[in-house]
Amino acid sequence: MKKEYLEEVDLHEVSVVGTPAYPRAIVKSMSGFSKHIIGGNKMQKDEIAVTPAEKIEVKTEPAKVEPVKVEVKPEVTEPVKDKVIEDKKVPEKEINADKDEATAKAVSKAVSTEIEKFVKTASFDKLVEKTVDKIIDKRAKTENSDKFPNKKEIKDKDIGELGASMMASKKNI
Amino acid sequence: MSDFEVFQIAKAKFWKDDNGDMFMKVPISGVADDRQGDSASKNCGDGMIRQLKSGTIPLYGDHGVDENGNKTYSWKNMLGKWIDGEWHENNIDVMATSKLNSANPDALTLFKYGEQKMPVGFSIGGNVIKTKEVDC
């Protein structure tokens, strides 16, 4: 007859129990009950070793979005200016007195109004869309794709810059 | 302080320190046969004592089984932690000392059961790493 001796036990817990016939019983690893004990307490030991702060403090670097500078160049404003004049949005006599400062201001104001109207149109949205696509294509070639902002992020950011740039440019028209 | 005999093997002790913290020192294992006829070796007892001294072994009731019979080991049911271990002078029993969890009402109940000399027992739970079969 053989007798089994326990040589080594990984102790996970010690319980108080109500059965006097139950002292010093080893919960054997081959039983389902024991497996539960192992899992539950192993996790507990690991939790002690790792502080919550170490677990949740994951630093991520936000995607860098470069501001987009858009200048409204004379080749854009000039046709608008011509159309303003063509549509007679500025009194003819003022146009004729083009060198007059007051007339220049009136033309400039009319051009600004037209550009502002254009900004609110679907055509302008398409222009922005195209610009954003170009920016994405350009950056995708030079930056890591996993750090690259999505189209929505870059569009929201760049439209703001684009709009501000437009407004700044209009002052110079 | 109150003492009582546990299974005629070793004496259990329940006491409070000057701060009112509750402690107990009870036999939890040893080289005598357990209910399954198995025995722990001296080496196994030494290993248990080392682990008890680490202060990370919890004290539960009924091996983590809750009132619905679920084996949860919920943190809420933790009755205390084991803080020390040693061989009894009979060299048969492993004696373990636990600091009872004063935030858990059941720990106070256990302490009072000890004072009332109720014959509660103690059972170790864990993973058997190594066994040895010997002819007898």
Distance between the termini of chain A: 106 Å
- Radius of gyration from the alpha-carbon trace of chain A, in angstroms: 37 Å
Number of strands of chain B: 8
Largest sheet of chain A: none
Mean pLDDT of chain A: 55
Topology of chain B as a string of helices (H) and strands (E) = EEEEHEEEHE
User: Could you state the order of secondary-structure elements of chain A as H and E?
Assistant: EEHHHHHHH
Shape assignment of chain B: globular
Number of helices of chain B: 2
Mean pLDDT of chain B: 83
Helicity range of chain B: 10-25%
Share of residues in strands of chain B: 35-45%
Major beta sheet summary of chain B: 6 strands, antiparallel
Our count of helices of chain A gives 7
Distance between the first and last residues' Cα of chain B: 42 Å
* Rg of chain B, Cα atoms, Å: 15 Å
Structural class of chain B: alpha+beta
The number of E-state strands of chain A comes to 2
Structure commentary:
The complex is a heterodimer of chains A (173) and B (136). Chain A is mainly alpha-helical. Helices cover 59% and strands 10% of the residues of chain A. In chain A, α3 (74-86) crosses α5 and α6 (122-142) crosses α7. Chain A is rod-shaped, with a radius of gyration of 37 Å. With 136 residues, chain B is α+β, with helices and mostly antiparallel strands. In chain B, 17% of the residues lie in helices and 43% in strands. Chain B has two helices and eight strands, in the order ββββαβββαβ. In chain B, a hairpin with a 3-residue loop joins β1 (2-6) and β2 (10-16). Mean pLDDT of chain B is 83; it is low at 1-8. The interface between A and B is large, with 39 and 57 residues.
